[in-house]
Amino acid sequence: IGIIGGTGLDDPDILEGRTKKYVDTPYGKPSDALILGKIKNVDCVLLARHGRHHTIMPSNVNYRANIWALKEENCSHVLVTTACGSLREEIQPGDLVIIDQFIDR
């Protein structure tokens, strides 16, 4: 399982037996090193979307490289978290929202 963590949601301590792996892809380097480990005996790969030290702005994230890197690690599923706001009044702070559309530039 691949996990792409956003702001504050990319803590490597959630993984047991962590190892760090730097990779390159046909699209360039992903946002940061992949952190490989396990959660309850399930193989997982954690990737900090904005880099471990939050140095990459959202418009500069190499999304294609991130997904390629997770695919190369045999991730069959990817969970992506984000902390952001909404212009829809019915969505309140703290609500869990699951998107069903994504536009890639």
What can be said about this structure in brief?
Strands 2-3-4-1-5 form a five-stranded mixed sheet, with helices on one face. The chain has one domain (2-80). By secondary structure, the protein is mainly beta.
Can you describe this structure?
The protein has 105 residues and is mainly beta. The chain has one domain. Helix content is 10%, strand content 25%. The chain has one helix and five strands. It has a five-stranded mixed sheet, covered by helices on one side. A hairpin with a 2-residue loop joins strand 3 and strand 4. The protein is globular. Keywords: Glycosyltransferase, Purine salvage, Transferase. One of its GO terms (molecular function) is S-methyl-5-thioadenosine phosphorylase activity. Belongs to the PNP/MTAP phosphorylase family.
Compile the SSE list and pairings.
Layout: E1 2-5, E2 16-21, E3 34-39, E4 42-48, H1 63-72, E5 78-80
Parallel strand pairs: 1-4, 1-5
Antiparallel strand pairs: 2-3, 3-4
